[in-house]
Amino acid sequence: MNEAVFSQLAMTVLLTALIGFMGFIVWDLAKKSRAGRFGTIAIFIVLGAGVLGFIIKTVLVEVLQI
Asked: Domain-by-domain residue ranges, the chain?
């Protein structure tokens, strides 16, 4: 396994773990602040939009590169 393959694999795995951990942090924040159902949904939509934008950007870069 060369460095490029390892870097790509590590980035994919660690970035997925980071996004999952960030989701847990948002859920914990909503729970501790007693945001309620609407507040929790709003927090996930607003903060999830940043993650969704990052994923869309990555997909577009790969598609346009081909």
From this structure: 3-65
